[in-house]
Design goal:
Blueprint (H helix, E strand, L loop, with lengths): L2 E4 L6 H8 L3 H9 L5 H9 L14 H13 L3 E5 L4 H16 L3 E5 L12 H9 L4 E4 L7 H9 L3 E5 L6 E3 L5 E3 L6 E3 L15 H15 L4 H4 L3 H10 L6 H14 L5 H9 L9 H18 L3 H8 L3 H35 L8 E4 L8 H12 L3 E7 L2 E7 L6 H6 L7 E5 L2 E6 L4 H11 L10 E4 L1 E2 L7 H7 L14 E14 L5 E7 L5 E7 L2 H12 L1 H8 L6 E14 L2 E11 L1
Parallel strand pairs: 1-14, 2-3, 2-4, 4-5, 5-8, 9-10, 15-16, 18-20
Antiparallel strand pairs: 6-7, 10-11, 11-13, 12-13, 16-17, 16-19, 17-18, 19-20
Amino acid sequence: MEKWVVSAKKADFKKIANQFNIDQVTARIIRNREVVGEAAIEEYLHGTLQSLHAPKQMKDMNRAVSILKEKIEKMKKIRIIGDYDIDGIQSVYILYSALRACGAEADYAIPDRIADGYGINERLVRQAALDEIDTIVTCDNGIAAAKELSLAKELGMTVVLTDHHEVPYEETRDGEKIFHVPAADAVVNPKQPDCPYPFKELCGAAVAFKLVQALYEEMGFLPEKAMGYLENAAFATVGDVMSLVGENRILVKEGLKALNQTKNYGIRALAARNQIELGKIKAYHIGFVLGPCLNASGRLDTAKRALELLLAKDEYKAAEYAQDLYDLNASRKEMTERGVQQAAELVEQTSLKEDKVLVVYLPDCHESLAGIIAGRIRERYHRPVFILTKSEDGVKGSGRSVECYSMYEEMSKCKELFTKFGGHPMAAGLSLPEEHVNIFRQKLNENTALTEEDIRGKIVIDVPMPLDYISKALVEELSILEPFGKSNEKPVFADKNIHILSIGIFGKNRSVCRMQVQSQAGTVMSAVYFGQVEEFLDFLGRKYGSDALAQAMSGKGGGMLASFIYYPEINVYNGRESLQIIVKNYC
């Protein structure tokens, strides 16, 4: 059972509530998201596109625009080289469409996930030279490709680098960082230490969007024309799991408005195929429904299929591409579920269960799914997880971590085992010989300082809020906190000693539990739990006995009590509105 803790951040909530005309509950949540001070709260609640920073504040932006304008005017061949994930796909779409709109002779190339790996590589550079390309423009990659971009320069090509990843560096003995920026003709990346751009957390597509804004201004287009790509930058920001704070929050908030009125045949077709009504697309749909369809093409086939969807010129072609991506994602989900099941069985049925760091070898798993499976197993067991798969040249793997375990640092302690590795505290990738798999598992567990408390799991409650406090007005007000995502998570509420009056189980796989519940003060409302319903029923049966459970199942309960972590919402049924809670956890 996870540990439940209440967020205890301090502020004058009454003052904030009065000043911004919001409920004190809303004020508490905003403080919990580290939004502090009048200006920050004002931007959080009411930020608009006018609050965004000027693109030309970014280092080398003017230089990049000047190069591209000259190449367009001279009809030089430009090749955009992106990446195979959501951010890479949307970045390529933005730059390719915008450059073509400027009259450029532009095309694109996307690496193959398995054959090429991430980003620009020697094969793509040499192919560009063979195709007589004059200028390479990278997007969502390139900052760590000094060798490959040097080759492009040696072969006589101009290079414009756009990226958002960390700049590689080495640390001297006295702790000074020496950064290594590739020798490109222009490097547009807000993460450069000497870049004056105020917001550093843009995704690759947002950097591409900023470049298009600056280029369109130089080419004499109206600002609104560049805004046509806002929805793509927003889609990528959510899909690449960027922090939804500051400029990103505004990009996504305003981009979702544009996305819900999109003219793009591909996005419209993909939403329709997933039965999402235009006008009702939220950040959730990008993260968990539409985004995975784009990602599935890069995982199981080629990301060019996702790009073809975005570039579709009519609704018939778009529907065809949307169906392809939908089917690919269905296969990806099926393969993922199989992998998760196999990994969980190995943990449960072998000595792996005793490990604090899980290293699970699934030789037959598709290597592109290792990271997703690692994330799912981490959620289940609340501990760092590496999923390893067999590849042509040994074993490849992906890791997903927990807050108190820096994956990259711990891997660095046994780096002699790897042929290649990289990452950061929360995620990592690696390659190693098959004979090192067991040694890797052993070393990580010998070296770890993780305690039982660390791997117990923790849920931070924003506000302990009795059901009696929930009102239609409050639920509607909570929508101003959207879009939800990384660093702006959906709020978490809790109430204790709730009486369960009745229980009904629904859904094809008995995966929906609908209850009538009553608070200590007598408020009655519906509560819905989507999750491991049988486990929930077992929990109640063990605690209160099978008779009490049977009474609740027949609608005559009341003797069973539970504490719930929940989110309130308004349920609309047959035109009638009622308050209900969505139960996330129980104890």
